[in-house]
Design brief:
The protein is of the alpha+beta class and 361 residues long. Helix content is 46%, strand content 22%. It has a domain at 129-224: Roll (Pdz3 Domain). The protein is built from 10 helices and 8 strands.
Amino acid sequence: MLVVLHEFGHMVAAKRNGVVVEEFGVGFPPRAWGKKLRKKKGDDTLYSLNWLPLGGFVKLKGEHDDATEEGSFGAASLKTKVKILLAGVGMNFLTAWVLLTGLFIVGAPKLPFESLPFYGKEQSIIQSDTKTVASKTYVGEVSKNSPAEKAGLEFGDVILSLNGQVPGDELTLNELTKKYAGQEVKLKFEDENNRKDKEVEVQLREDGASGGVLGVGVSQTVKFKSTWSAPINAITTMYQSTEATFRGIGYAFSSIVHGESEKAGEVVGGPVATVDAIKNVSRSGFPDLVLLIALISLSLGIMNVLPIPALDGGRLFLILLFRLKGKVLTKEKEEKINAWGMGFLLLFILLITVVDVRRLF
């Protein structure tokens, strides 16, 4: 969906600037269906649905920089080429901004920027117009033979209350369990597997006991809600995410150079890690899933703007580089450089996938 939106941005920019769009495809060939809609005179764009559901593509007339035919990408002005190449990135940024703005209006999950080893800053929001509207306490690790295990708590469950008190309203779960240490309490939680609320009686251990009073590791999620500042909070969140992404890339490469591949694997993920993240986050609710989609859209935009051959930023970099040198970027040179860039990307994805599989399984 996000890649199709990215390609849609390219198509709109091309058509608005007089470059012929030969085909706009959802998925990759072989083709399942195709039709020329011809809404405007002279618009012969073929809209297609294809069997491989791996994003989408836009095919422009004369896509190479040295093309000279009328209506081709190559014959367009440098300003037009910049618009077309950056339109996909702009669409990804716009998608992220719209989704984040909507989330801040209804309740956006807090991003734990401060927990990143290469960042360490709190999420920046306009405090005067933003309030915490909800928080959830998710079960992480459950100690063996602990009160939590005996109560039936498992990874992913949500602790709703302890003796009628909701963790996070006034006291954290840790503070609540210490308050009732050594006592029998009523624990209410949402079973992640059955999506049902359960209430059980639990005998807590004494304060200071090995493994904790309840014997469970938890993570707290917080949601922010704002009104007029929602679009601004969305922009600052995008800025921080972009800054964290570039720092994360630097941290990953630095770790690889120093032979610490495990550290790099902790902050970089490929297709396998993305699918796993979507699976895990979807359990937390629709807002968390929308947040992840917004961040993936933002990441697509960031990665595509980098000067890596075969990506939008790389193609633009090549065009500008050859302009500065006063040389012609021929079709052969462009294809060769982009092929090397694509090879590098595929190798990088393969390496990241190996790291993902090792980490997950």
